[in-house]
Amino acid sequence: MKIDKKEVLRALENITVPGEGQNMVESGAVKNIQVFGDEVEVDITIKNPSLQARKKTEVEILKIIHDKVYAKAKIKVNLKVEAPAKTTVNEIKGKPIPGIQSIIAVASGKGGVGKSTVTANLAVTLAKMGFKVGLLDTDIYGPSMPIMLDVALEKPLSINVDGKNKMKPVENYGVKLLSIGFFTQPNQAVIWRGPMASKALNQMIFDAHWDELDFLLLDLPPGTGDIHLSIMQSLPVTGAVVVSTPQEIALADARKGVAMFQQEAINVPVLGIIENMAYFTPEELPDNKYHIFGKDGAKHLAQDLKVPFLGEIPLVQSIREAGDVGRPAALQNGTPTEEAFETLTKNVVQELVKRNTALPPTEAIKITTMAGCSAVKK
Ligand SMILES: Nc1ncnc2c1ncn2[C@@H]1O[C@H](COP(=O)(O)OP(=O)(O)OP(=O)(O)O)[C@@H](O)[C@H]1O
């Protein structure tokens, strides 16, 4: 009996490789077929490396050739596995929050590096640029955003939306704000455990009427603890920025911050690193730069970690004062500070656009274990 190669091909068109949509001929999995009388040799390459997939492929090839071509054919299957290169892109699929285009998490490894100050200024700058902006202050350890946006004495109202009671964010300078700070007494130390905090955060996200937003900024608590994991678990974060000063100990923690977002279980794209307090410029000597905390530390860290460097913000007395009186410095007109925040904000938006064209949407992350997150307290 002489087997016809074309018949073998036709037979193989009836079966697929496990996990691949097209039949194995169409998908290109079948690389070669050789026939010698009643002997058939099939070379096939599959992507799925599991033993089950390899066995199934082999058995199905034998079966279909025996069924459709020749019941006594002597068949040899040469199976090769070529798993696709593991992508470093975000594999997490998106379940976006209706109406919210992008969620940007602002993190810092170390406390006090100016993460909240930078977040508040990013928010008002985005609003000045005409974007619809929301800001969620998730810093359970020290929610400072109500003060920075001068709404500390206000409270979110309850409104009815489609028959449901929703929390209406407080708004100032074109920025909608919800903060843990609205629900605690001003001098009350908030010592919340992860699950409590995450419940409150969930309410501020899903039981709030944010309406349409181009950007929702998240002011994360400092560090890389379980609250961060809780947030990543419940929110489709589009990208993260990490704020650091150029100082060595801040940089070491910023490195941990970047690593936290990049670890496999979280895998949120890092849009870049921001250097705050990059240098000091006295008001009376605006051209002088004193690198109090070191020079270009965060820039070098960004290069080292191969993430974008988003810009530097100087240490300026008026930035601190503006934060204290609740009118972010970026609201100034025509000052170098306003300019610095504008450049920074443009860079963040640019990186976000790049990210959105390169990667799929981020889904709320399903973390089942905290293993691998070295900074998580046991
Ligand atoms: N560029 C800057 N120039 C001057 N002062 C600044 C600057 N950035 C931040 N500050 C001041 O530094 C202090 C700490 O800033 P901020 O509260 O924003 O830090 P943080 O990183 O959010 O802190 P934490 O996360 O620990 O609450 C504040 O008093 C703030 O006004």
Keywords:
alpha/beta, 32% helix, 13 strands, binds adenosine-5'-triphosphate, 378 residues, disordered C terminus, 2 domains, Rossmann fold, 3-stranded mixed sheet, 8-stranded mixed sheet, GMP Synthetase, Chain A, domain 3, single chain
Give the terminus-to-terminus CA distance. Answer: 69 Å
Q: Could you name the CATH homologous superfamily of the largest domain?
A: P-loop containing nucleotide triphosphate hydrolases
Morphology call = elongated
Q: What is the alpha-carbon Rg in Å?
A: 28 Å
> How many domains?
2
GO molecular function, one term: ATP binding
Domain MIP18 family-like: 5-53
InterPro entries: FSCA_dom_sf, MIP18-like, Mrp-like_CS, Mrp/NBP35_ATP-bd, NUBPL-like, P-loop_NTPase, YlxH/NBP35
Pfam family, one: ParA
Description:
This protein is of the alpha/beta class and 378 residues long. The chain has two domains: 5-81, GMP Synthetase, Chain A, domain 3; 100-358, Rossmann fold (3-Layer(aba) Sandwich), CATH 3.40.50. Helices cover 32% and strands 23% of the residues. It contains ten helices and 13 strands. The chain has helices spanning 5-12, 51-68, 115-128, 145-148, 194-206, 226-234, 248-262, 297-305, 317-325, 336-358; strands spanning 30-36, 39-46, 74-81, 100-108, 133-137, 157-161, 164-168, 170-172, 175-179, 213-219, 239-244, 270-280, 309-315. The strands form three sheets. It has an eight-stranded mixed β-sheet with strand order 8-9-5-10-4-11-12-13, sandwiched between helices. A three-stranded mixed β-sheet has the order 1-2-3, covered by helices on one side. Strand 11, helix 7 and strand 12 (270-280) form a beta-alpha-beta unit. Helix 1 (5-12) crosses helix 2 (51-68), helix 5 runs parallel beside helix 6 and helix 7 packs parallel to helix 8 (297-305). Mean pLDDT is 85; it is low at 86-94 and 365-378. Residues 108, 111-117, 139, 142, 144, 222, 276-277, 313, 315-316, 319-320, 323 line the site of adenosine-5'-triphosphate (ATP).
